[in-house]
Specification:
The protein is mainly alpha-helical. It has one domain. Helices cover 73% and strands 0% of the residues. The chain has three helices and no strands. α2 crosses α3. It is elongated, with a radius of gyration of 14 Å.
Length: 82
């Protein structure tokens, strides 16, 4: 999931420079909202978001923000190396 999301981000960042705004943090938030809060529960891979306390959502949200930031920083390093 992480590799696929990262690859999608890298492709979008090359095609649409505005994607890089916010140093990947908005991307991380989008992954959290779409995948963690939407697709994963809808696919039956987790309980409904309403069945988790707010603290779990906050932790997952923060983790996804770090994921987005890291994805952009790694993309920059790889891009510069190419």
């Amino acid at each position: 999931m992480g590799a696929t999301s990262g690859a999608l981000y890298g492709a979008l960042a090359e095609a649409i420079p505005e994607v890089k705004a916010g140093v990947g943090v908005p991307f991380g938030a989008a992954v959290w909202l779409i995948a963690d809060e939407g697709i994963v529960p809808a696919a039956g891979l987790s309980k409904s978001p309403t069945e988790y306390p707010l603290s779990i959502h906050a932790y997952a949200f923060a983790s996804h923000l770090v994921f987005g930031l890291t994805t952009e920083l790694v993309r920059r390093i790889v891009r510069d190396a190419l």
